[in-house]
Write a structure and sequence with these properties.
This protein is mainly alpha-helical and about 300 residues long. The protein has 13 helices and no strands. Helices cover about 85% and strands about 0% of the residues.
């Protein structure tokens, strides 16, 4: 079977699965509010709705995820904590996130082996090249979730780093205006919900944990670990020390805001200084050859003509 037959089949299957997912998203006729009203009118509908939710594709995946994740489950508690931290840095704070991630990783491994093995069998047959295609497909399927998580983690950490100075300045203003730290964090989360959604999400989670009765020191420490940004960790350390020793939180935030602003200006100056070095490569590869042809080309043509006439 040639590659020209495999590609249309794969495209057809992808379009079919995509349409199925879209129909599944828009197929629900009732929202959650109407469902809860119906459950209050008839308590027996609660069990029916929960059973209907578990009967779909999402429910099947939710049930199968723990069994699939056992194969790739971390052996030590340190590895498990590292996985939770990496997923939290990427924005996945759900307690079941590691289980679903490992299940997706195993599913991608199986899909990669199946696709690579099938492609190798149709293209090369049962030989060395077919086995290589199977191994490459399995490797790509196994490491693809890791690569995606790393990309999402890096992007989210960059967004938090870029939006943190604005949030910190507003936090300083709120604290100096007389609000407590909890109320100031809540106010910042409300004001910057559109411009800095990642920081506001972390602040809302921290406020929720504080309302549930967790100690402020643990909440702030978890806030720094979840974001994974060094500036946030430094801010959290300063807030913990200020809360521990009873010093002024407003002054500590002001000092951190000034140091962060200086750091950002230094980073901008560093990138500006690197511009001249980075421009060498495009100049040498793209601009200098054109200039060389324009300047030396006519002289070279004249020299060739003179040599031919002689």
């Amino acid at each position: 079977m040639e590659l020209t037959y495999i590609v249309p089949i794969a495209v057809f299957l992808g379009i079919t699965l995509g349409m199925w997912a879209v129909l599944g998203m828009f197929g629900e006729k009732e929202n959650r509010a109407s469902e809860r009203l119906d459950e209050l009118k008839d308590p027996s509908r609660r069990a029916q709705n929960s059973g209907a939710k578990d009967a779909g594709v999402g429910g099947a995946l939710k049930k199968a995820a723990p069994a699939l994740s056992k194969v790739l489950k971390p052996k030590t508690e340190l590895e498990e904590n590292n996985l939770k931290v990496r997923l939290a840095n990427a924005g996945y704070n759900n307690p079941n996130a590691p289980t679903f991630f490992l299940a997706i990783k195993l599913g991608c491994l199986i899909a990669g082996i199946a696709f690579g093995g099938g492609f190798g069998a149709f293209k090369y047959g049962m030989n060395y090249h077919g086995l290589s295609s199977l191994v490459i497909g399995g490797g790509l399927g196994f490491y693809m979730p890791e690569i995606i998580i790393r990309i999402l983690r890096k992007q989210r950490m960059d967004r938090v780093f870029l939006s943190l100075p604005d949030a910190l300045d507003l936090l300083v203003v709120c604290v100096e205006a007389g609000l407590g730290l909890d109320a100031a964090m809540r106010r910042v989360a409300e004001e910057l919900a559109d411009s800095a959604p990642d920081v506001c999400q972390e602040l809302n989670l921290a406020n929720l944990q504080l309302q549930m009765g967790r100690p402020r020191r643990e909440v702030l420490h978890d806030l720094g670990v979840r974001t994974g940004v060094d500036d946030m960790k430094a801010l959290v350390a300063i807030l913990i020390q200020a809360d521990k020793f009873g010093s002024s939180i407003a002054q500590a935030l002001r000092v951190q805001s000034d140091s962060m602003r200086i750091k950002r200006s230094q980073m901008a100056e560093e990138k500006a200084a690197q511009t001249a070095v980075k421009m060498i490569f495009p100049l040498v590869l793209f601009i200098f050859p054109g200039i060389f042809v324009v300047l030396v080309g006519p002289a070279a043509i004249m020299m060739i003509r003179n040599l031919l006439t002689v």
